[in-house]
Design goal:
The protein is an alpha+beta fold and 704 residues long. The protein contains 28 helices and 23 strands. The longest helix has 24 residues, at 34-57.
């Protein structure tokens, strides 16, 4: 390993001197004119870049670590003698400093989109059908790539030099993490003009790809953290995000991230006419394009690729959670287009959750924002798909009963890509016979945080802490309010919220808008710039639309979707505050229980006062009314096969505008399956369950 980039920094001055004596090149350089030194420096840098490329991009080093270290040291020494000649793209300049102003927000050249997911062959074939339909062609080539489990990152190059690295953020605006990105060895800091030319890439371009932490680096980092008594990261994806967003680039450098590009843009637009060409060109330019990719003709071959990698995924040095299939031709991609946040010309096929067997050691009850107590299984640590799992959810008391689980049991734990691991079942077999000394899981009597007696209302599965002032609830409420999908106050995460609530600076969400710079500066690890950034974020949150504020209030049973319907229906917080149970039930998907929960929330004086304070703080408490129909209210639809007159999205919109809901899979709860041509297993399932099957004409009639 070229550990040297970091350790070489730390080599003592005396060793540096002795190294200098070893290398005549330096002496030579010292004696030459400034121009000669500059030239020699560049030759040395190019040599080092070449070896970095062999090692970090191709995984095929051509010299030993020691030889590499020596070259690096030569460069450092010459640069130390000639500081004026140090260039930002020198291999010695990967690590350096921290951003002066925290992470500055930067707009993307074009939205950084996400991908839609499929989970089985039928859904994948449905997707292909849509591609055929939208492109008007039936012979489409696709590129299959691994779906790398990291975070997407944009790199901006000007005149062949890396000038900026930007996280995805919310897709439109990301954060400038350039200093940290520069430490990733597989990211070229500069690419010679002739190399770019040969690869057919313009001098100013943007690359988008996946930043990830290889499993070995992840394990090493967590082992080190554990030894130091620090909190460990849950999985490599979180570790990547945490690493790229911390302020010391030296720390990022130590953690060994890797970067695989999969897009090349010029002025926000795809540059080449085929995706396969993009990948080849990026490879030719010196980027680490993932080699495990394939150009295929039709979905049958893509399916083969998917099956092949499902069996081999554990042999990879990093985590993948599926396969991405992309239409190869850019012209066809343009024709096929996008939905709101994902291209229709690409799709992710997600592999099923992976499982492991371990022992249940204990169960603790965790208090959430609404006071709900969730049982969390504490497990003997088990390695599942590259991640050490220590905790898993048991959902609720009923689930504990359903599983029949006791402390000491062997359990199967499942982990999907994005979800919290869960306990799936008890294991009792030859290798894992059920132990005799099992202990029943105790149901909670008191809130583990504030000690108040818990309540379990008839007919409800959850135990709740009903103490309005329970510190756990307050913490979770603030975290929810500030989170990305809600008021999007970046920087207001666990650490800050803990301090704000512990110091009594924030006793409810309205207090956030009263925070002063001095308040923030009185907290630990808070500099002037960070405090200002947080104040800016708080100010910016005031512009977010009404539905976010409604969602942010944390009213029981009011999630993101319901908040949206409420905002559209009432058009103002005031109208919502004063709505009756009956009026509320006119809103899409709002039944008596949700309506009562909303009325109950606003019947509490403290909650009304809270809203009043948010109004005084000038949050957006009104919006545009939009009438959705109610003719399909409460009805759930599943679409399958190819519709003759609508795309899937158009059909979905029609159903939703009429108040209905569209889901992906057929169950007993489905009211209608809309079947188009070549409908597959979803249609069979509907027949098996006796779910009503209709055609698109009937769908139109129902939607009015
Ligand atoms: S393409 C417009 N290709 O998956 C195309 N994404 O779930 C957008 N990802 O945000 C992305 N491997 O972070 C693409 N080979 C791959 C990928 C990949 C991983 C990530 C990416 C994206 C997320 C969507």
């Amino acid at each position: 390993m070229y550990l040297s980039l970091i350790s070489a920094w730390q080599i003592s001055a005396s060793r540096r001197l002795s190294l200098r004596a070893l290398f005549p090149l330096i002496i030579l350089a010292m004696g030459s004119s400034g121009k000669d030194v500059a030239k020699k420096l560049e030759t040395l840098r190019e040599k080092i870049r070449q070896h970095e490329y062999f090692y970090y991009v191709l995984d095929r080093p051509e010299i030993s670590d020691l030889e590499f270290d020596k070259l690096m040291q030569q460069l450092k020494d010459v640069e130390a003698e000639n500081p004026a000649l140090i260039t930002p793209d020198s291999p010695t300049q990967r690590v350096g400093g921290k951003p002066r102003e925290g992470f500055v927000k930067v707009p993307h050249s074009s939205p950084m989109l996400s991908l839609d997911n499929t989970y089985n062959e039928e859904e994948l074939r449905d997707w292909e059908r849509r591609v055929h339909e939208l492109s008007g062609r039936s012979d489409v080539d696709y590129v299959c790539e691994l779906k790398l489990d990291g975070m997407s990152l944009a790199l901006i190059y000007e005149d062949g030099k890396l000038v900026r690295g930007i996280t995805r953020g919310d897709g439109s605006v990301g954060e400038d993490v350039t200093l940290n990105v520069r430490t990733v060895r597989s990211v070229p800091l500069s690419i010679p003009r002739d190399r770019l030319k040969k690869a057919g890439i313009p001098a100013n371009f943007e690359v988008r790809g996946e930043l990830l932490m290889p499993l070995a680096a992840f394990k090493k980092m967590n082992d080190d953290r554990e030894a130091k008594g620090l909190a460990v990261f849950a999985n490599p994806r979180n570790a990547t995000a945490g690493t790229v967003r911390q302020l010391e680039s030296k720390v990022t450098a130590e953690r060994r991230l890797d970067y695989f590009p999969y897009m090349l843009l010029e002025n926000g637009r795809t540059y080449f006419d085929r995706h396969s060409k993009t990948l080849d060109a990026l490879h030719a330019a010196g980027f680490k394009v993932n080699q495990n990719r394939k150009l295929v003709h039709g979905i049958d071959e893509a399916w083969e690729f998917i099956l092949q990698w499902e069996g081999k995924r554990d042999s990879l040095p990093y985590e993948i959670d599926g396969i991405v299939i992309k239409v190869d031709r850019t012209a066809l991609q343009d024709e096929i287009g996008f939905t709101g946040k994902a291209p229709r010309w690409a799709i992710a096929y997600k592999y099923a959750a992976r499982a492991g067997i371990t022992k249940l050691e204990n169960v603790r009850w965790q208090v959430g924002r609404t006071g709900k107590l969730t049982p969390v299984a504490e497990l003997v640590p088990v390695f599942i798909g590259g991640t050490t799992v220590r905790n898993a959810t048991l959902h609720n008391a009923d689930e504990i009963g359903r599983l029949g689980i006791k402390i000491g049991d062997w359990v199967q734990v499942e982990r999907g890509g994005d979800v919290i691991p869960k306990v799936a079942k008890i294991i009792d077999d030859k290798e894992h016979p059920r132990p005799h000394d099992l202990k029943a899981i105790e149901m909670p009597e008191r809130c583990p945080v504030c000690g108040t007696k818990v309540v379990r209302t008839e007919g409800e599965v959850d135990y709740r802490c009903v103490n309005a002032n329970c510190p756990a609830k307050l913490r979770e409420t603030i975290l929810h309010f500030a989170s990305r999908g809600v008021m999007n106050i970046d920087g207001m995460g666990d650490a800050l919220v803990n301090q704000l609530t512990e110091h009594g600076l924030v006793k409810n969400v309205a207090d956030i808008y009263k925070l002063s710079k001095d308040d923030l500066l009185s907290l630990e690890r808070m500099g002037d710039k960070s405090a200002q950034n947080i104040l800016n974020e708080i100010e910016a949150s005031k512009k977010l639309p009404l539905e976010r504020v409604i969602y942010g209030l944390g009213i029981r049973m009011v999630g993101e979707r319901t908040a949206q319907f409420l905002a559209e229906h009432f058009g103002s917080m005031e109208a919502l505050e004063n709505a009756s149970v009956e009026e509320l039930q006119n809103v899409n998907e709002v039944g008596p229980r949700i309506a009562e929960s909303i009325v109950e929330f606003f019947s509490i004086a403290a909650n009304r006062k809270l809203v009043e304070r948010l109004r005084e703080a000038k949050l957006t408490l009104s919006g545009e009314k939009k009438r959705r129909g109610t003719q399909l209210a409460g009805k759930t639809f599943v679409l399958t096969g190819t519709l003759a007159h609508f795309t899937r999205d158009e059909a979905k919109k029609m159903i939703e505008d009429a108040g209905g809901k569209v889901t992906g899979s057929v169950s007993k709860k489905t009211d209608y399956v809309v079947a188009g041509a070549d409908a597959g297993s979803k249609l069979d399932k509907a027949k098996e369950l006796g779910v009503k099957v209709i055609d698109e004409k009937e769908m139109e009639t129902l939607a009015g």
